Amino acid sequence: MNKTSSAGRDRTVRIPPMVKSLRLAFRAGGLVAPSLAARAAGALFRLAPRHRTSDFERQVLGAARLRFLETASGRLATWRWGDGPAILLVHGWGSRGARLGSFVEPIVAAGCSAVTFDAPGHGESGGRLSSLPQFLEALSAVASAYGPVRAVVAHSMGGAARLRFLETASGRLATCPPLSASSWSNASSENLDSAGTSSTCLLA
Fold it and tell me: Does domain 55-202 have CATH number 3.10.450.590?
């Protein structure tokens, strides 16, 4: 246990047994077989947790059109709602596309289509491991399949992939009616309860 002091009080931080075991295993592995330990650590770092689909997520996905894309990282599960220029919803590490489902209704109401996907190693997509380059690869594949792209809404790791994507995506952008401030605010507020702060980039 680690102890820290704040405002005159001791706070005990309990380290989970699994974390303790991993520390010991990598410490021993680093001494006996450092290259093997390094490869194992790299794989563990790229292993994203998977979560059960919530009732809300199942409801949102049930109203979408499902399509699978083939990428270098394996089969990519994608979903689309509505028609018109696409607004891409990109989830973060250890999450899934449906977690941004609160944005779907205002996007479709604005005359655009909402498109999301599960990144490699996440949700319904193939693969066991993932990384930022794989997020970017998946985002680029989805943009090519569903373009023209009007905007990208992204969270966490998806936000990092979005920045890299936007450096080269200007030729694939189109325009559509902007989302109203009230609709966008409501969607963002609902989404914050389950998925954290989302970054938004509207592109003309």
Answer: no
